[in-house]
Amino acid sequence: MLHRLRRIGFFDRSLAVTALSAFQRLEASGVWREAPQEAVRDVIVSVGDATLILTDPKSDQPLSHWSLPAVTRLNPGQKPAIFAPGVPATDEILEIDDELMISAIEKVHTAIQASRPRPGRLRGGLLVAAAAVLVLGGLAWLPGAAVRHAALIAPPAQREAVGRQVLTQLTETTGAPCSRAAGSAVLDRLARRVTGADSRVVVLPSTLRGARALPGKLIVLGDDLIIGQPAPHAALGHVVAAQLVAEEQDPMAAALTFAGFGAAVSLLTTGLLPDDALDGYGEVLLASAPPRPSDDDALLERLASVGVPSSPYARSLDPSGEAVLTLIEADPFRMAPPEKPVLTEGEWVQLQRICDTAMEP
Questions:
Q1: Which residues of 41-57 are buried (b: 16+ CB within 10 A; e: fewer)?
Q2: What per-residue confidence (pLDDT) applies to 123?
Q3: Which of 62, 91, 115 is the last residue of a domain?
């Protein structure tokens, strides 16, 4: 396979510098599958700063980021090499047959793994630290600080992995995400237009009373805002509101707070959360309505920038309008609709059918 070396500079991280001291980025062709039911697609694979970046060769848009400490080779010694972003591999896989790229990935991964303290020593050190906290009584802030720090420094690949874990918890109650092909394509376009090219919007077959942002720029939306609704404006308003709430209150920090101190330490040291760290978190999220943005003016500005009226969103929160009067009266499109709608009528029809599994995609 064709590969390219770029001499741009050294990695910021000493482990990556040691493993690949001659170049910063190595690129090669690969074949990527996002999920078991998805078709494979060609990608460009590049080694970044302790991450593996998968990019669409046609648009140069990043499709996925993997944390190198968590990358696992599923078929050691065989060709093409098959990699997954973690263990067990339940979703994404990547196939590469470029020897230089395979060697580079394994070299960096080995260097990072070798630098870690042995689990037994780490566990013993944490126990000693915990005992010291209890004796001295001066570090009561440590668990919270560890959670905040883990959320703050988590790279995109870790955030996406945690977001998928939270989504799995939600689907245990709501059912699997709606995935009719035509509707899913509309969701992809909606995300690019409203929340950015690196975000995803997922519809769940349940009443969520709004949209909720999960770690990894993932937004979940209940089908109650789509099926049977006359227009997409309320649903779009909730998606924009969820994105704004995520900027105010990091959903990664909320998930790690639930998971606890030990899970946060595991994320910091291994790049992964324990499998059961978020058990029950989906039920906690579904127990209350998604939070609203704290600043109505900021929400109105964001809605205006993407061409979404605020009144339908406001009426979905309070049909009487009394509690959301500001959002109704200051609707940026109160006098005239947006020049270009976010979704066409045809796209809205396809999106409304996204949960209809009986129809052909």
A1: eebbbbbbebbbbbbee
A2: 61
A3: 115
Q: Which two tokens stand for residue 271?
A: 């790049």
DSSP string, 203-244: EESS--SSEEEETTTEEEEEGGGTTT-S-SHHHHHHHHHHHH
**Residue 80 preceded by cis peptide, ω within 30:** yes
From 95, 115, 135, the end of a domain falls on 115
Contacts within 8 Å (CB) and 24+ apart, 145-153: 146/261, 146/264, 146/265, 146/268, 147/253, 147/256, 147/257, 147/260, 147/261, 147/264, 148/253, 149/264, 149/268, 150/256, 150/264, 150/265, 150/267, 150/268, 151/250, 151/252, 151/253, 151/256, 151/264, 153/268
Specify if 82 maps to a domain: yes
Residue 125 lies in a domain: no
The verdict on residue 145 lying in a domain is: no
The tens digit of pLDDT for each residue in 262-313 reads 998 888 888 889 999 999 999 999 999 999 999 999 999 999 999 999 999 9
Asked if residue 268 belongs to a domain, the reply is: yes
Q: Say if CB 92 and CB 83 are below 8 A apart.
A: no
Domain count, the chain: 2
pLDDT of residue 225: 95
pLDDT band for 171, please (50, 70, 90 cuts). Answer: very high
Note whether 298 and 161 are same-domain residues.
Answer: yes
Structure tokens at 210: 């709004």
For residues 167 and 297, membership in a common domain is answered with yes
237, exposed or middle or buried, with CB in 10 Å at 0-12, 13-18, 19+?
buried
99/175 same-domain check: no
The range of the structural domain enclosing residue 11 comes to: 3-115
**What is residue 69's DSSP assignment?**
G
The letter for the amino acid at 144 is G
List the CATH number of the domain containing 82.
Answer: 2.30.29.30
- The answer to whether the pTM exceeds 0.70 is no
